[in-house]
Amino acid sequence: MLYNTLVHIVGPLITLINGRPLIKNKEKIPSGNYVLIAPHRTWMDPVLLAISVYPKKFSFMAKKELFTHSFANWFLRKLNAFPVDRVHPGPSAISTPVKLLKKTDLSTIIFPSGSRYSSKLKGGAVMIAKMAGVPLVPAVYQGPLSFGALFSRKKRKINFGDPIYIDRHERLTKEKQAELEQKMQAAFDQLDKELDPTFHYDMPEKPANDHF
Question: Rounded distance, CA 93 to CA 62, Å?
């Protein structure tokens, strides 16, 4: 209920401030559940990506520090978020999204780099998709990187790519993992070029207290 309510409030509010987004290749998104993967470029991109494909709903990984206070914990869980220790992730970082993908109608959004301060892809998204038996759907976001920047009227752009299917019966070797990571990165690069060939993401400086 809260998820639906916020989408119907936040979506029109952002459109009022920033105008309608450009969304390309939405028809490539498969039916059923999937893992939506994207480069992590702003704290807003989970929201912007989720709104762009509504009424499909998502679960989200969020760093455990955000769940410290009781209200934040309640609020985030109502939005289908679950806590993950980014520095020392336990088995639940894989098992929780796999269970949700298998047993609910929620897809999940994962940023394979894990952070806005890194471009190095990690293997969690591949493992989750393989265990859940769902495809990876690459996407990229270009546009304002802060709430204040939305008032600049610089257009929000989102591009979706072809699903990446993983054979559940194929062993996920180090070589296979590297191959899939290269495929994901190639998809991100191609999607960025389709939106704007001159686009470049200026990675912010990593905060001293971010150890991920």
Answer: 10
Q: Cα(39)–Cα(125) distance, rounded to whole angstroms?
A: 12
Q: Residue with structure tokens 């509504």? A: 54
pTM of the model: 0.89
User: How many Å from the N-terminal Cα to the C-terminal Cα in the chain?
Assistant: 33
DSSP string, 131-192: HHT--EEEEEEES-SSTGGGGGTPPPEEEE---B---TTS---HHHHHHHHHHHHHHHHHHH
The amino acid occupying position 26 is K
Residue 174's contacts (CB-CB under 8 Å, 6 or more residues apart) are none
81 close to 64: Cβ distance less than 8 angstroms: no
pLDDT, tens digit, 9 for 90 and up, residues 137-147:
999 999 999 99
